[in-house]
Design brief:
The protein is an all-alpha fold. The chain is built from 8 helices and no strands. The chain has helices at about 1-10, 10-20, 25-35, 40-55, 70-75, 80-90, 95-105, 120-135. It is globular and about 45 Å long.
């Protein structure tokens, strides 16, 4: 029953965790945090980061429904993105807030991965997610 409640309320739980809620304060938060920081979720996000880097160097595909990527920004932030992916797959503990920030970078259309923004915005967003991921 807990899994079902967590699934139904995952967006609200994610919002609370992103705002810094203590995952140990509530069983639903704890369950959601455990799912977010699981090796499976972390590997999936790291794979998404690697895919973004790979696609940034591939030729642009004409006539696609995919949201266009900010290729120059991705290439400029490549080292930081690779480090973030590496830390996601490391055995060290990570924070749910950082995992959520990485997820948002990869999935939200207004992310600096996709939206034109000032130079260095993607690099700053990746640094922010990385710091939140490893925060103790």
């Amino acid at each position: 029953m807990l899994r079902v409640r967590v699934w139904l309320h995952r967006r609200a739980l994610d919002r609370a965790l992103a705002e810094g809620a203590d995952a140990t304060s509530d069983p639903q938060l704890a369950h959601r945090a455990a799912r977010l920081t699981s090796p499976r979720c972390r590997r999936s996000l790291a794979s998404g980061l690697h895919r973004m880097i790979r696609e940034a160097y591939e030729p642009v595909r004409p006539l696609t429904s995919a949201v266009p990527m900010q290729r120059r920004e991705v290439r400029a932030a490549r080292d930081r993105i690779e480090q973030l992916a590496q830390d996601l797959t490391a055995p060290d503990e990570v924070q749910p807030r950082g995992v959520l920030l990485v997820h948002d970078l990869l999935t939200h259309g207004d992310s600096p991965f996709f939206m034109p923004s000032p130079d260095g915005s993607l690099d700053a967003a990746v640094r922010h997610a990385h710091a939140a991921l490893l925060m103790r």
